[in-house]
Amino acid sequence: ELIAKIKDIARRKHILMTRYQQRQFARLVKPIDDVAARAAKVKVGEAHYVPSSRKRQHPIGLVAIGASTGGPPALQQIITQLPRNLPVGVVIAQHMPPMFTQSLAERLNSASSLTVREAENGERLEAGMVLISPGGRHLTVKRRGGQPYVNVSDEPSTTLYKPCVDVLFNSAADAYGGATMAVVLTGMGSNGLSGMRLIKSKGGVVIAQNEQTCVVYGMPRAVIEAGITDHIAPIDSIASEIASYF
What we know:
Elements: H1 2-26, E1 42-44, E2 47-49, E3 62-67, H2 71-79, E4 89-94, H3 101-111, E5 115-118, E6 129-132, E7 138-144, E8 147-153, H4 165-176, E9 180-184, H5 193-201, E10 205-209, H6 219-225, E11 231-233, H7 235-243
Parallel strand pairs: 3-4, 3-9, 4-6, 5-6, 9-10, 10-11
Antiparallel strand pairs: 1-2, 7-8
Helix pairs in contact: 2-7, 4-5
């Protein structure tokens, strides 16, 4: 009976999150109008966050991003600020039901200098390409003959979330090892933590959105409190942190 109650609570939580995402996406604000005009210092509470202005010496082959509640607007701020000549691919797991990720990809593609689309099974992952996991399915990164590609699948079927951030991050760690950069954004729960632990253990880079700019400070908080983050940044500066490695 206790197990049944726990499963029912988890199911209700997932339903509520899905409904929130649907309402949130419907109200998604217009693309950021003037990225260049944003100040170099971003006010965070009483302090100021200063994004890196120099290139960091760590090889990166892939950027993997995980988000949940509050994710679409956060992704919009990041993807639209990434440089046109980004030399790596980007993969995203956004907790979202089917039918919504295609529209999200189209909106980001129209506002970004990068190519953004909903991932297709077996698609090659190329530089300057942003692939979003289809709603209700898992996205993983694999290699065939040394060439990276993505796999879209219903497996594993036992995860609470689909797409699952941990599933994506674990596959990224296996495919790219220490050359993986993982970014965790606003969202409830701790999905993404175990995947980030694996990435960190292999020498990868871990970035978390700060509390002040999160809609829900759950997923980033779990990673930050685990002590595995390399950078904690406001949403306006995460793209700068990513770009500082290239």
